[in-house]
Amino acid sequence: MVRKVLLASPRGYCAGVERAIDTVERALELYGAPVYVRKQIVHNIHVVRDLRERGAIFVDDESEVPKGATMVLSAHGVAPSVHHNAAARGLRTIDGTCPLVTKVHVQARRYASEGYFVILIGHADHDEVVGTMGEVPGSIALVETSQDVDALSFQEGTKLAYVTQTTLSVDETADLIAALRRRFPEIRAPQREDICYATSNRQWAVKEMVGEVDLMLVIGSKNSSNSNRLVEIAKASGVASYLIDDESEIDEAWLDGVSVVGITSGASVPERLVRSVCDWFRARGVTDAVAHRFVEEDVEFRLPFELRS
């Protein structure tokens, strides 16, 4: 029987997600509905549903947006071709890209301009990876596994540099970087790691908790990279872990023999969903729901300049 719930800290919204959601909300205030959003503004079905109810229309491609309309770009970033296409359609484009993703784009462009071939560590088809790959087409290759690293082949004298997706597993990325350095000792590294502070902090919080829980529930949507990494980290430590969008997805069979449940949430998850999961346990007799520890993040990003008035 579950007797205790431990809450990870930090968890939930990061500064880039808050900025992206605030961008859509502010655009709706300034320009009125509808405001079009290219892709999911962040990877969470509840956030997307809430914004849709307020007048946001989500599209897969900028070609679906009526000429002259307002379009917000998601937090994950886009290739330059998207900006060109939007300009050709006369769209009022507001860039909701997380500044930490923008940093990776700038880095990739700088490497390519200096004659480097760029290796991107990331997950194929993730929106962030698609955008980064589009920054330097023809001068970039994606690696997901050590086998991908082994398969790389370059002419002698090719200058190499690497960047990474911002929402990866810290440990797995370190392993891939080590593999790259073994194969290409001269490969150039970013001055600072690309995995964002929020991703690292949330993974650290799970690692700190796993020794004290029997089950880890990670609140987040299925397409959320950083949420999936939290599940993987708990499982790698030998703790059963499940990804849930909300309390409706909890299977009571998971709780058999479980005394302490750990709860965390991905960087796109509103805190109200954590409260709802805690209420689910309280309704089943759990009175002890406490923070494992308290860690405060003080990072803030300004809104896009079009919305700062």
Can you give a write-up of this model?
The chain folds into three domains: 4-13 and 197-291, 4-hydroxy-3-methylbut-2-enyl diphosphate reductase, catalytic domain (Cobalt-precorrin-4 Transmethylase, domain 1), CATH 3.40.1010.20; 15-97, Rossmann fold; 100-194, Cobalt-precorrin-4 Transmethylase, domain 1, CATH 3.40.1010. The protein is built from ten helices and twelve strands. Helices cover 38% and strands 17% of the residues. It has helices at residues 15-31, 45-53, 80-88, 99-113, 127-135, 146-151, 170-183, 197-209, 225-236, 271-282, and strands at 4-7, 35-38, 56-59, 70-73, 92-95, 117-121, 140-143, 160-164, 215-219, 240-244, 260-265, 288-291. The radius of gyration is 21 Å and the shape is flat. Strands 10-9-11-1-12 form a five-stranded parallel β-sheet, sandwiched between helices. The protein is of the alpha/beta class. The model has no long low-confidence stretch (mean pLDDT 97). The longest helix is centred in the first third of the chain and has 17 residues, at 15-31. It starts with a strand and ends in an 18-residue tail after the last strand.
